[in-house]
Write a structure and sequence with these properties.
The complex is a heterodimer of chains A (308) and B (275).
Chain A: H1 5-19, E1 24-26, H2 32-37, E2 45-47, H3 54-64, E3 70-73, H4 79-90, H5 93-97, E4 104-109, H6 122-127, E5 132-134, H7 139-151, E6 156-161, E7 180-184, H8 192-200, E8 206-208, E9 213-215, H9 220-227, E10 231-239, H10 244-256, E11 260-265, H11 283-307
Parallel strand pairs in A: 1-2, 1-3, 3-4, 4-6, 5-6, 7-8, 7-10, 10-11
Antiparallel strand pairs in A: 5-9
Helix pairs in contact in A: 1-7, 3-4, 8-11
Chain B: H1 7-29, H2 45-53, E1 58-60, H3 66-71, H4 76-83, E2 107-108, H5 117-128, E3 132-137, H6 144-155, E4 160-166, H7 183-190, E5 193-197, H8 201-212, E6 217-222, H9 242-249, H10 253-274
Parallel strand pairs in B: 1-2, 1-3, 3-4, 4-6, 5-6
Helix pairs in contact in B: 1-2, 1-10, 2-8, 4-10, 5-6, 6-7
The chains are: A alpha/beta (308), B alpha/beta (275).
The complex binds thiamine diphosphate (TPP) and magnesium ion.
Thiamine diphosphate binds at residues 63-64, 112-114, 136-140, 167, 169-171, 229 of chain B.
Chain lengths: 308, 275
């Protein structure tokens, strides 16, 4: 039977802890379901107290020793506290001291979990130099990320999403001739197929170029998809303003010479009530924005044609 | 541990730190060092003494760290070069005064957030199982992430000695304006062997020797910063001067100091001539 993302993480972790003498840190790891069953019950696991600044400092200190610790942050929102040792120490040590702090930060997100349990904050770590940043959503992608971590000596921010944990499938890009290229990140990747179906019924053809590597950003496959369409939409599970989607859209505009828009969460606090709901753009919302940008792009192209 | 105190060795290290720092002060005054410097003039005895008991330990310091570097066997030439921003510096000239690292010691630097080195040292002790010494000031010592790190070291019985160089100052704010509790009371209640001593090497040595048999441990050493928080200026004569007291009691003190002074002067002159 095909492995899920959760099983893949567990297997990689077990191998690292048992055979590499690696380390795994986190809060409430050994209770509460072993982090959605992604952590094995084996040696080299250290339970952290509830101290979200010093914990990350301790983990970075352990990383200096070369044991390549994995630290699990159960909700990405806690990064506002935990990020200080990461951005102030781990991200800089190679540039300033010439010694690296290879730490594997598993930062988890969850759907509809309220004010401080639902955020996707990979954008913060793309902003600061020194990190490799990714958001794997499939078993093979997770393997690739782990391999990348082990062959480099940079700290790695892994923006996980619980929505992906049961996933066994690889998510495919397609480069067909299309009207719009959808460029999804994180759990929005699971919403695009539905959006593609909705839009196909309206005669708007979309192709899809998935984003797993956020930094260093890998754009060859995206440019290939964009080349065979008229415009693009980058969709992220994080906030739109100053977020990954905007940053990537901007770089794609210049690399492809095509209009590319960003779509992310609204600029408002996230809660659990209907009024405060502010989740990853779903298929309906993606379709709505695609219609809008497609219309604009057609108009623009016609105008250009007329001028010519 | 059966070591006997070696006053001469400690005194020699203190002289090295004092004259090195005075050399930095001079170079800074002459604008040969155009960036910030944090000097340990007056604060020589803690690291000079602790280092004689912790040879080979991994050392984690904060901004006022020239003293620990020199005491723990760091290469003075590489520190001169570092302060001058030269590639041959212990940190390639990129760290400067507050960010000193040299894996030959081995000493690990930090990037300027006070107390940042305390959790880092704690994680290092956990991951390596090797003796680790963390030096920091009385302000860093009270940071929230420092307190948790002490507790973590107690929980995991880590081989770490926390050394608080307590000059009763956070830049210019004394402890009484910041807190009405002592960090060593907190660490003691967490289960760390803890001691509070004066900057007399004999007191430091006796306490540290005991603590090193009961790690993890915390030692608070009252000390006196002679110069401003940053740079070469001062506000008049210091309240106390441990090096001056030592001069009176160490046999051959004057010869030792003269020799060390000449050595340090030569280090600076050699490099400054090249600039
Ligand atoms: C986290 C953090 N907060 C505040 C500062 C500003 N700051 C720089 S040095 C200093 C005082 C440090 O005092 P102490 O730790 O006692 O060391 P000392 O300078 O006395 O040797 C402060 C508050 C800082 N660098 N980092
Ligand atoms: Mg102080």
């Amino acid at each position: 039977m095909a492995k899920t993302v959760a099983e893949t993480i567990k297997e990689i972790t077990q191998q690292h802890l048992e055979q590499n003498n690696g380390l795994l840190f986190g809060q409430a790891i050994t209770a509460v379901g072993w982090v959605n069953n992604t952590v094995p019950n084996c040696r080299n696991i250290v339970e952290f107290p509830m101290a979200d600044v010093s914990n990350m400092g301790i983990a970075c200190g352990a990383a200096i020793s070369g044991r390549r610790p994995i630290i699990v942050i159960r909700f990405q929102d806690f990064m506002w506290l935990n990020s200080s040792p990461l951005v102030n120490y781990a991200a800089k040590s190679k540039d300033i001291f010439g010694t690296s702090t290879p730490i594997f930060v598993r930062s988890l997100a969850q759907k509809n979990a309220g004010c401080v349990h639902a955020a996707v904050l990979h954008s913060l770590f793309m902003h600061m130099p020194g990190f490799r940043v990714c958001s794997p959503m499939t078993p093979n992608e997770y393997q690739e990320v782990w391999h990348d971590f082990m062959v480099h000596d940079d700290p790695m921010y892994v923006s996980e999403h619980r929505t992906s944990f049961g996933n066994t499938e690889e998510l495919k890009n397609n480069y067909d001739q299309a009207d719009v290229t959808l460029i999804p990140i994180s759990d929005s990747r699971f919403n695009v197929n539905e959006a593609v179906r909705i839009l196909a019924k309206e005669n708007i053809a979309c192709n899809v170029a998935h984003v797993m590597w956020l930094k260093p950003f890998k754009n060859d496959h995206i440019l290939k998809a964009l080349a065979s369409s008229k415009c693009g939409l980058v969709i992220d599970a994080g906030f739109e303003i100053c977020g990954a989607a905007q940053s990537i859209a901007y770089s794609l505009i210049w690399a492809s010479d095509k209009p590319v828009k960003a779509l992310g969460l609204y600029d408002k606090s996230v809660g659990v009530t209907p009024e405060t709901e502010n989740a990853t753009p779903d298929a309906q919302r993606i379709a709505e924005v695609v219609r809008e940008i497609y219309k604009k792009t057609i108009k623009r192209d016609q105008y250009k044609e007329n001028v010519r | 541990m059966g070591e006997q105190i070696n006053f001469k060795e400690i005194f020699r290290k203190m002289c090295l730190i004092r004259h090195f720092e005075l050399g930095v002060a001079e170079a800074y005054k002459e604008k040969l060092i155009p960036w910030l410097v944090y000097l340990a003039v007056g604060q020589e005895s803690p690291s000079a003494t602790i280092s004689t008991l912790t040879k080979g330990a991994a050392v984690f310091t904060q901004h006022r760290g020239h003293s620990a570097y020199l005491a723990h066997g760091g290469n003075p030439q590489k520190l001169v070069d570092e302060l001058l921003g030269l590639e041959s510096g212990c940190c390639g000239g990129k760290g400067g005064s507050p960010c000193i690292q040299d894996l030959d010691v081995p000493m690990y630097g930090h990037h300027g957030l006070i107390g940042e080195n305390i959790p880092l040292a704690t994680g290092h002790a956990l991951a390596t199982g090797k003796l680790t010494v963390a030096y920091f000031g009385d302000a860093a010592a009270e940071e929230d992430y420092a307190l948790t790190s002490y507790g973590f070291a107690a929980t995991h019985k880590l081989p770490i000695l926390y050394v608080c160089e307590d000059n009763d100052l956070s830049i210019l704010t004394p402890i009484k304006d910041r807190r009405n509790w002592q960090v060593y009371d907190v660490t003691r209640s967490m289960g760390l062997a803890s001691a509070a001593v004066d900057d007399d090497p004999k007191e430091i040595f006796t306490a540290a020797k005991q603590l090193l048999n009961r790690l993890p441990a915390f030692i608070n050493i009252k000390t006196c910063r002679h110069l401003w928080h940053q740079g070469n200026n001062c506000d008049g004569p210091p309240k106390s001067d441990r090096l001056a007291e030592m001069r009176k009691v160490i046999p051959g003190a004057s010869e030792i100091e003269t020799e060390v002074k000449a050595y340090v002067r030569n280090l600076w002159q050699k490099q400054l001539q090249k600039l």
